[in-house]
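Session log. Operator J.P. requested a structure for one protein chain; no other inputs attached. Running the standard single-chain path with token output.
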Amino acid sequence: MSAVPANLRLANQAALLGQLLGRKAASRAELAKATGMSKPTTGKIIDDLMHAGVVEEIKLMDGGRPSVGRPGKQLRLATNRSRFVVVDLGVEMTRISGLPPSPPDQDRWEIQFKTPGSADAWQEKVAQAAEKIDIKRPWAVMVSVPARLPLNRLAAIAANVSYVPCRIPWVPM
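Structure written below.
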């Protein structure tokens, strides 16, 4: 990656998000120290990420420890709004869920249905699921398929996953 401002900003965003993913929560000062960025750079990027709904401030209860100065506000990856659609296309069952930027601690599937026998039937089921999940413009749609496809109905569906018709609201034309 060349060292142009846009690329450096993306690299800095990725570094900050990686720290929040690993730590669960941190202050701006802790993030600046961990990444080696200046505090103003860290603050500006965090403000942009908060405005985009990727990061949120959290209130922590006072731990009873005396501190000097104003305590830093703690930040974490956003948990309040689903931004991603995840589809687990299994041999027997298909599971679909909307997820926020902060990964959940345990599996949480909003929709589950028996994987139909044809690609058209599967696409129709996914279209119905799209209406039930409250994400109109997801940041990404992730589809998981088995590593070893059995020679049955799943192979036909998986082969067409990237060519899902536009009748599914999340997939642009």
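Operator note: The first helix runs from residue 5 to 23.
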